[in-house]
Design a protein that fits this description.
single chain, alpha+beta, Sufe protein. Chain: A, 3-stranded antiparallel β-sheet, 3 strands, binds FE2/S2 (inorganic) cluster
Length: about 120
């Protein structure tokens, strides 16, 4: 049912944890399954220098959050905003159709963290 990559990221998730002095934090939840995800970003000179996540959710949600931290790290804000829900699933060699909504959580969480960062910097 799951690709090897999904299993690998689920068993050995990258960038788990919290960034205490994060520049942006995105919290998203899926009302259907009740799973929750928080994405933390550090931004320096317009680039995401660090990305971490905390996920209370299913295996696919953990694998997709792990994958999105890898996709987003080192990218500029603009590039990171372009990472789509499909990109996350594609990078994991696909997800079972019933689990596609889990990858939405990861992309939405990253975008929410970037928005938070942008809002904070507007008010400065
Ligand atoms: Fe809820 Fe996967 S079942 S995010």
């Amino acid at each position: 049912m799951y690709s090897k990559k999904v299993m690998e990221h689920f068993s050995n998730p990258r960038n788990v944890g919290e960034i205490e002095d994060a520049d942006g934090v995105g919290e998203v939840g899926n009302p259907v399954c009740g799973d929750m995800m928080t994405i933390y970003i550090k931004v320096d000179d317009g680039k995401l220098t660090d990305v971490k996540f905390k996920t209370f959710g299913c295996g696919a949600a953990i694998a997709t959050s792990s994958m999105i931290t890898e996709l987003a790290k080192g990218k500029t804000i603009e590039e990171a905003l372009e990472i789509s829900r499909d990109d996350v699933a594609d990078s994991l060699d696909g997800l079972p159709p019933i689990k596609m909504h889990c990858s939405n959580l990861a992309a939405d969480g990253l975008h929410a963290a970037i928005e938070d960062y942008q809002n904070k910097n507007k008010s400065k």
